[in-house]
UniProtKB/TrEMBL annotation:
Organism: Babesia ovata
Feature: compositional bias, Acidic residues: 132-148
Keywords: rRNA processing
Biological-process GO terms, alphabetical: rRNA processing
UniProt-annotated stretches for the region Disordered: 125-176
Any single Pfam family the record assigns to this protein: WGG
Residues in coiled coil: none
Family stated for the protein in its record: Belongs to the TSR2 family.
Name recorded for this polypeptide: Pre-rRNA-processing TSR2, putative
Amino acid sequence: MNDAVEAFRTVCRKVMNCWTALNLAVENGWGGDSSEQKREALISQLIDFCLSKKKLYTDEVEDLLFDKMQTLFNVDIEDQSEVEIARLLVQLHNTCSAGDLTFAVELNEKLTKCSTEHCKVKDEVVEASSGDSDDDMEGEDQGDEDGQDAGAAKGAGTKPRQRKTEELEDGWTKVL
């Protein structure tokens, strides 16, 4: 039974280390300066919770994951990924409890440290050609919410466009 418990601990830790929501929370410091310690605490609490149960239910694990992600990292999980993680962990718990390590071995082999590179925003610098004029850009998104040119806001090296305005008779200014 010690092999089954150790297999559960190892694979559970690996599953959690591959969870994109948790990785993003830690990498971006959403839990503050102690985000890494909070991740370790979450994983330890989860493992202890699962091992303390003779019969483990998916909704219990879902609730634990959802609540801990909210309290530790201020993350509202909207992609239902905690449901998938909970299902995996319950299946892992059930098979390991029965002494069958096949699923644990398969899952351990399939999982690798997941990267969050695909989740990162990449800023691209676009050089404006000398032939572009304000009139050519008509109908395209020329700025962000605070009225600044998007390229200038990102430091793209282009000059901010001068906004054309029109004074309306009721005292309002219309931005063209």
